[in-house]
Each structure stands twice: as structure tokens, then as C-alpha cells.
Amino acid sequence: MVELLRLENVTKEYSRGLFGGTRFRAVEDVSFKVDKGKILALIGESGSGKTTIARIILRILRPTSGRVIFEGKDIFAFDAEESAAYYRNVQGIFQDPYSSFNPLKTVDDILELTCKKYTCSEYPENAIKQVLERVGLDPQSVLGKFPHQLSGGQLQRVSIARALLVKPRLLVADEPVSMLDASTRVDILNILYDLKTGENISTLLITHDVSQAYYVGDEIVVLYRGHVMERGDATILEKPLHPYTTNLLASVPTLSSRWATEEKIRAARLRLEAEEETVYTTTGCKYASRCPYASEKLGCFTRKPPEIEVEPGHFVRCWLYERR
Ligand SMILES: Nc1ncnc2c1ncn2[C@@H]1O[C@H](COP(=O)(O)OP(=O)(O)OP(=O)(O)O)[C@@H](O)[C@H]1O
């Protein structure tokens, strides 16, 4: 496997509170790599730091510490030429396709502008038709239309087509299908899969949905409150080791189980709110207050667990796996 991008101990602190007086770590000591021609799925619940990581990789944010290495070089040490190449090589696809486009411009205008900015081809019209067909759109059905005249699924395909115009090496797709209906979701995930196998394009797929991650992910990274709790190839979702991953998989709804009662939902929400503040200041494991296995004896409440390689390529951040 050939590495394309690597995060090394990335930490991001934000200012919080009145006048930004307190600092808190939204992302802490995160390391993982994305290989060429592979899909890495980054899973995490709301607030776990997924978008922060995406924004760091897209160079919208700088990490407080740690490095992001693309093809062997720190992306925050690039010169102007390398930065321009990076912005071409790494393209973002976002959750809400409607907010990704200027509502006053037609699809042709939008794609031509991208072509002009990146001089994508000698024949922009042909290039545009080609990428639209690559994402399963009939050019005639979308060219000349404004974003609001297209469905969410069509528009998300247009945003992937726009990214493809510049021949990227890596797509950073932040919840790209969470606003789409179930069948359109699968179509878009299939496109990411086809781009990987056909054009060797890697994807960092950010999602809160474990089933999406398992559907297309070659590698999986499970994030909780800014920490990577477990990572490895897709089989880690078949035999999860971290109590958080196990819990996450157990909470995937199935047709045989009905939605929880109002009371249960309210209790869960209250518990999460109560945890919110303590979890960011804990000196121990961030999952300790919810973990059924957490104990004083293991040190879960006082010691931050390191990433432990439990089997080759399978990392778990949990004291249960400490070799004694
Ligand atoms: N600019 C900011 N200033 C202060 N806090 C921030 C800022 N951006 C994000 N945060 C906080 O950092 C934490 C991680 O946010 P982030 O958006 O990265 O999470 P996420 O996993 O993408 O969540 P979601 O799925 O809800 O988008 C959250 O607690 C959020 O409130």
C-alpha cells in the first residue's frame, strides 16, 4: 500500500467561553494515513471533531500541533507553487450541495469557471461533458440549469463532477450523502468506489453512519470527542475491540428493533449534556464516564490511554488492552 496523506499527532484547540478565555481540544493527538486508491472512512458522532479534521486537511484551519504530510511533505510548509498544486490535488465535497454553489450561476457557468481557474483542458466543453457522464448525469439534463432546479442527488453529483475536472488525488467528502434519500446515497457512495477503482482517486469519507463506512471504507477510523478510539481495516467493524465501537455498532437501527421511547431519548440527551463539559477536562479516557468496563483499577478516570496495536494494523485506545 502506498501512502498519500498522513496525519501525525494532530491536535486542534479552540477558544471557548466568555471572551474566548478557555481553550478546549476539539481534536487531540490524531494519527492515521490515507493510502493511494483507497477509501478511509472517519466515523464519529456529532461534535467528535470530524469537520475540524477535514478543514485541517483542506488547509482551511491550522492544527495547534502535529503535522499533515502529503506525499512526504508537510502541507503547512508548502511554498506557493506546492500550495497551488495541493489545492488542485485535494478537493472537498460537502454535506449540503445547495450551499456549495452560487445560486445565481448555471451548472455550465460553475463548471466553466472551475475549468478556467485550473485550466483543466484545452476543450472545456468536452471535459465538462466527460465528468458529468462519469458521475452518471446526462449533460443535457443539467447544463443550463440553476442549482435550485436540480435535486439534491443531482447537485451532489455535480459537485463531484466539479472536483473531477481538476483531476484530484484525494477527495475529502464531509457527510456527502447525509442530506440525500437512501437510494441516492448508495449511488453517490458507488461513485466514490468507482473513482477509487477506475481512477485511483483516494477518498476520506467523513460520516456519522457506520453502515456507510462499512459499505465503502477500506480503512476505518473511529473518533470520539476528538480522540481516535479504534482504527484498522474494515474488518474492525466485524470484530470491534473498543467498548465505544461496540456500543456504536449496537446502536445501528435495524428493522427488528423499534425506536426508543420519548423518555429514553430525553434521559440520553440529559446524560450527554451533563457529560459534555466534564469530558473535555478529564485527565483520563474520554469515554470513561460512559464505558461499562471503566474502573479505578485500570486507571480509566485518571490516565489517558495511548493507542495500543492489539494486532497488526489494528489500533485501540483503551486500557483494557494494555500489555501487563
Ligand atoms: N470555530 C470554533 N470555535 C470553537 N469551537 C468550535 C469551532 N468549531 C468547532 N468547534 C467545536 O469543536 C467540536 C468539534 O466540532 P466539529 O464540527 O469538528 O465536530 P463534528 O464531528 O464535525 O460534528 P458534526 O457532525 O455535528 O458536524 C465541537 O464541540 C464544536 O462545538
UniProtKB/TrEMBL annotation:
GO terms for biological process: peptide transport. SUPFAM superfamilies: P-loop containing nucleoside triphosphate hydrolases. InterPro entries: AAA+_ATPase, ABC_transporter-like_ATP-bd, ABC_transporter-like_CS, Oligopep_ABC_C, P-loop_NTPase. PROSITE patterns: ABC_TRANSPORTER_1 (PS00211), ABC_TRANSPORTER_2 (PS50893). It comes from the Archaea. Gene3D superfamilies: P-loop containing nucleotide triphosphate hydrolases. GO terms for molecular function: ATP binding; ATP hydrolysis activity. Residues 5-250 form the ABC transporter domain. The keyword Disulfide bond does not apply. The keyword Methyltransferase does not apply. Pfam families: ABC_tran, oligo_HPY. Keywords: ATP-binding, Nucleotide-binding, Transport. PANTHER family: ABC-TYPE DIPEPTIDE/OLIGOPEPTIDE TRANSPORT SYSTEM, ATPASE COMPONENT (PTHR43230), ABC-TYPE DIPEPTIDE_OLIGOPEPTIDE TRANSPORT SYSTEM, ATPASE COMPONENT (PTHR43230:SF3). This is Oligopeptide/dipeptide ABC transporter, ATPase subunit. It comes from Thermofilum pendens (strain DSM 2475 / Hrk 5). The lineage of its organism: Archaea, Thermoproteota, Thermoprotei, Thermofilales, Thermofilaceae.
